[in-house]
Design a protein that fits this description.
heterodimer, A: alpha+beta, B: mainly alpha, globular
Chain lengths: 238, 240
């Protein structure tokens, strides 16, 4: 048996060594983490327009993204031109949706990207909501009638692979959105994700859910319904 | 395990150990079959149920567990003589958590897509009972090199089962293998069960089984694997 003094010293030294090494590793890899995250954000937004961008290399993403027009909207759909602490105008790509979500709904800023695809403007809108385990988010590319979906992309913080994570990985699920309308002018409702049995296949406002991922799919429905308001306020003004 | 400890004591009279002797080889091969952590010791079932819906994440998970298990074994074996026995579990946990965090940070920096794919499961390695089980049962009583090999062996034994279960679940549940589309109801699958052609003629009756995607399926897949292993490896059957 070791003395109490030895035990205390041992644990103290061990935890200090571990903490120092981890802190060093985390700070030295931080630039790479930040770069990867920014790149993956741009990749997500561009893949809403065309799935081919999901496999594109880093330079192509940066190049294409530099041609995308960016706007920041407030909750009423007005374009914001706020400056950050260094006096640089805040761009849509600088917005941290995680932080925006914590603000009161009226104070949130929303990113809007406009991508020119063969002479036609595509409006890329983003939404964020709750999945089963953690947050889910997605971007929708809308044609210039502001209704027809040209492409979607989803992502998640911690949904189950093979079930909820399918909203991101399953191309068949995402393909269903293309050509559908995100907003139904007839009854004022947004697009919904429904389980197979309840779905009317002729409707443009319904998408078939993934089996085994009911909560995540309901999350997608809710996220669209709650996240689109500022964008539609903006579209109305255009 | 008991006679290993006795052997260790006898050979402690400075007999140099070979790098890859018979004993070292069995350390790697034993966990693959006779002493498999999943099918024989029934450890690590929780993560085996959770990650095995798709082959690719299971594969990366397997690599991560081999790494963590091997280096945790090595570190604990190096520390085993200086370690106060009162806090050995806590020391083991700190070492495991440290290695898992390293894996997470490195994956995030150098392989961001895999990092995003595995997301929550990397953290789950900390609670994987196999890692701690090996530290307690082997690394605390054996020399560093052998502990390292034991870690690799057990990581591989676990990872192998993971990949087999994932392959079965992905093929029968989703009709794909590692993302490659094998059998399903649209034309981009290799065997198209719906549109006219040989696929629908011979496989028109076939539908992917949604149950295989759910965690419960992993439980009976592993159950059937244990059954098959025992009927073929009679050593494992308890005769009492």
């Amino acid at each position: 048996m070791h003395s109490n003094k030895y035990v205390f010293l041992y644990t103290l030294v061990l935890t200090t060594v571990v903490a120092v090494v981890l802190a060093f590793l985390a700070t030295s890899l931080k630039p790479l983490h930040v770069k990867n995250e920014a790149l993956s954000k741009k990749k997500d937004i561009l893949s809403a327009v065309d799935a081919k961008f999901a496999d594109a290399d880093d330079d192509e993403i940066e190049n294409t993204f530099s041609k995308v027009k960016q706007f920041v909207l407030d909750a009423e759909g007005n374009i914001l031109k706020n400056k950050n602490s260094v006096g640089k105008e805040i761009q849509a790509e600088d917005l941290d949706m995680k932080k925006e979500e914590k603000k009161a709904e009226a104070d949130r800023s929303y990113p809007l990207y406009v991508y020119n695809h063969n002479g036609q403007d595509l409006y890329i809108v983003s939404a964020r909501g709750n999945g089963l385990w953690d947050k889910i988010w997605g971007s929708f590319a809308l044609k210039d009638d502001f209704r027809t979906i040209a492409g979607v992309t989803f992502d998640h913080a911690g949904e189950t692979p093979g079930l909820g994570a399918e909203i991101k990985d399953n191309t068949d699920f995402k393909k269903q959105f293309i050509g559908d309308k995100i907003y139904n002018d007839a009854n004022g409702e947004y697009l919904v994700v429904k389980k197979g049995g309840q779905r009317d296949f002729n409707k443009d406002y319904e998408v078939d859910a993934i089996s085994g991922a009911t909560v995540t799919c309901d999350g997608v429905t809710d996220m669209i319904a709650s996240g689109m308001t500022p964008y539609f306020a903006y579209f109305k003004k255009k | 395990m008991a006679d290993t400890a006795v052997q260790e004591k006898n050979t402690a009279v400075k007999v140099s150990e070979p790098l890859f002797g018979k004993k070292e080889r069995t350390l790697i091969t034993d966990p693959l079959n006779d002493n498999n952590p999943v099918t024989v010791q029934v450890l690590g079932i929780c993560s085996a149920l959770a990650v095995t819906t798709l082959v690719v994440p299971s594969f990366v998970m397997a690599i991560a567990v081999v790494f963590v298990c091997a280096f945790a074994n090595l570190t604990i074996s190096l520390l085993r003589n200086s370690m106060p026995k009162q806090v050995r579990m806590i020391v083991q946990l700190v070492v495991i958590a440290f290695l898992v965090t390293v894996v997470e940070l490195v994956l995030k920096a150098f392989s961001f897509t895999v990092y995003k794919q595995l997301s929550v499961f990397i953290g789950l390695i900390i609670t994987n009972c196999i890692v701690m089980g090996r530290l307690e049962a082997f690394a605390m009583a054996n020399k560093p090199w052998r502990s390292f090999l034991d870690g690799i062996g057990n990581g591989l034994g676990y990872g192998g089962i993971l990949i087999i279960v994932a392959a079965i679940r992905e093929v029968f549940g989703k009709g794909t293998f590692a993302g490659f589309k094998l059998i399903g109801p649209t034309p981009d699958y290799l065997i198209d069960t719906v549109s006219a052609g040989w696929g629908s003629t011979f496989f028109g009756w076939y539908a992917n089984n949604g149950l295989m995607v759910l965690p419960a399926a992993a439980l009976f897949v592993i159950g059937v694997m244990i059954w098959i292993q025992r009927s073929w490896n009679t050593k494992l059957v308890d005769v009492s």
